[in-house]
Each structure stands twice: as structure tokens, then as C-alpha cells.
Amino acid sequence: MASSLLAKDIIVKNTQMILGDNKTPFYFPSYTVDGKSILLTQNAYTGLWILDRSSEDIRKITNAQGAGFEPRSLTDGAVIYRHDEYQKGRKFTSLYKDRATENQLIADAARFVSPANMVNDRLIYLIDEAPAILNGSSGRSEHNLEDYTTVLNDKLTLKLFQSGEVSVIAPQGEGNYIWSELSPTFDKLVYAKTGAGTFVSDLQGNIISELGFVHAPHWSPDGEYLVYMKDLDDGVQYTASEIWIVSYDGLQSWKITDTPEKIELYPQWAPDGEHVIYHSLHGEIIETTIEIVE
């Protein structure tokens, strides 16, 4: 596999600003599962918008707090998002589904609701460390974990769902784990451990590669590459950041942006494998077209 990766190169073909009106800043863009639209949010993950890539029409889905934190889309075009509310200083999270005509409550408010992953239109997440599966299409809860494999971040630990069981996976031992994501091929895991760096492992926790200074990594659709940000800060705010791509084995990397005057953050890979999208510090949404060549 390493030799096949070394035979390839990544070329930047084009970079364009999708949204650049600083009067309306947007952040944390992500593609819908069909790649036809882009989900956007504003400061502190408040609100959720959807941008049609063909028509360039933008529609507000909700003003809800937390809605922009890792929203998920379904194959039928629906979007599922969080709604955070505070009662006497305690946060409660419910889940809603948007179908363009209405927003439907599909999971009642609960404490300690983890970020969710989508597998076969099933939303898999934790409620106070207990596993939950929600059929995104029907809105009904399911209880059989055996058909699904995913990894979730929960309270800075990694939880592996596999063969109907939920277990803690800690390849680097005890500590704080963030930015975890299971590869689209379901055989590799990328994660960062505070103070140690970013790593790729198999699902048994065996280290495949140490990637070093790789923040907010996101898998390519074929599971061979990761797009990420290489950022600097002064302890209070970002001072610089560029977008890079690295092979999962860490043997090759490519600088996708080279703009010292602009700080680019939190990239996401498109389902077609030919685009990456990210935001600037000032709320611009930028998309780069790439080509992977032999």
C-alpha cells in the first residue's frame, strides 16, 4: 500500500471563494453526503444554513444553538442537527431533522449527548455514555449494534462500536483524545492525543503511523489521505494556518494553500474526492479543487 501511495501526486487545480461577504461570516463548512450542498454555521456553532452548489442558493435551516456542530445529512437530502438549550446552567441536547418544509424533533432533550456519526443513514451516538442508534429516515430508535462499526469521541475518550459491543480504545494509553474519525474503509482510525500528536491506528489500537503536527484531520473518500490544518496560535488566537494533505502512512504530504495573509481552518473533503472546503478566520468559505495523479 505504501508503494502505491508513493506513485501518486496531488495537484491543486483551482481555488475559489464560495462565500466572502464579511458582513455575514460563516464557519465550519461540510458537504452533504451526496456532495450537492454545503452545510454552514456561524459563531459558536449557532444556526445552520445549507448552500446549493449548483444554484448557489442559501437557505437557513435553524437559528438553534449548537446546530452547526457536526450536523449530519441523509441520502434522501434531509439534515439532522443538534439543538442545545440551557436550564439552570445545565446543557440539554435534542436532535432535529430538517426536510426543507419543517423541522421535526426526533430525539428528546438529554444530558451529555456525544457528537454522532452516520452509518447507513443511522445516527450513532452516546447519551451519558450509553449507546443510541436513531434511524434517520424513520426517526425511530434502534437497538441492534451488531451491523455497525464506528468510533466516537465522548468526554475526551474514544469509544469503539464493533460487533455489537462498545469499548474504550486508547492506543496511546490514558489521556485526552480528540479529532477522531474512522476511515471510510472501516479499518483505520485517525485521532489526536493532547500533548502527543496525531496518529493513525488500526481498530485494535496498533499504531500504523505518527503524523505529528496534524490538526482537525479528515479522511479522503478512498481512505488513503487526510486533509488537515497546520495552525499556529499565541495562546489566545490563531496567528497562522494553512491547509495540507498527508498520506495515511505519513510518507507524503502536500501543501494545498500558501497564503500567509489568510488563516484557513477546519477543512473537509468532498464525497467526489476532488474538492476540499474550509473557512478563513474572517468567515470566508473557500473551496480548492485537486487532482490525484499517478
Rg, please? 19 Å
Structural class comes to mainly beta
Describe the global form.
globular
Strand order of the largest sheet: 1-27-26-25
Largest sheet: 4 strands, antiparallel
CATH topology group: Methylamine Dehydrogenase, Chain H
Number of helices: 1
Provide the residue-averaged pLDDT. Answer: 93
Short overview:
By secondary structure, the chain is an all-beta fold. The protein has 1 helix and 27 strands. The protein has one domain: YVTN repeat-like/Quinoprotein amine dehydrogenase (Methylamine Dehydrogenase, Chain H), CATH 2.130.10.10.
Task: Write a structural description.
The protein is mostly beta strands and 294 residues long. It has one domain: Methylamine Dehydrogenase, Chain H (7 Propeller). It is 2% helix and 55% strand. It has one helix and 27 strands. Strands 1-27-26-25 form a four-stranded antiparallel beta sheet, with no helix packed on it. Strand 4 (48-52) and strand 5 form a beta hairpin.
How are the SSEs placed, and which strands pair?
Blueprint: H1 2-6, E1 9-19, E2 27-31, E3 37-41, E4 48-52, E5 58-62, E6 72-73, E7 79-87, E8 90-98, E9 103-110, E10 117-119, E11 122-127, E12 130-135, E13 141-142, E14 150-154, E15 157-162, E16 165-169, E17 177-182, E18 189-193, E19 197-201, E20 207-212, E21 215-219, E22 225-233, E23 238-247, E24 253-255, E25 264-269, E26 275-280, E27 285-293
Antiparallel strand pairs: 1-27, 2-3, 3-4, 4-5, 6-7, 7-8, 8-9, 10-11, 11-12, 12-13, 14-15, 15-16, 17-18, 18-19, 19-20, 21-22, 22-23, 23-24, 25-26, 26-27
